[in-house]
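re: that chain from earlier
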Amino acid sequence: MNEAFIRNRITELRIKKGVSEYKMSYDLGHSKSYVNNISSGKALPPMKEFLEICKYFEITPSQFFDTETDNPILLQTIITELKKLDSDDMALILSNIQRLTK
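^ sequence. v structure.
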């Protein structure tokens, strides 16, 4: 993993979220060119901002670096909702997932 990976991953997640560079910059409390500067290679976010970017996408830093998961934002939403279920309901969901993935 390198700087290009971080830039490309932010762009990928931003597009999946359906927001423009300008909107994401604004949402993060920065100037309109903040995300563009990251995407174009002019800058990289410091650690504090990286964590805010992960929070913005509603993913963990681990999920940010997980390239095997197609849609980490959707996966995190599913996990959050699953945590609200009791054991019986989770078992039912699991059996449905296993049936669908056969």
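The longest helix spans residues 3-17.
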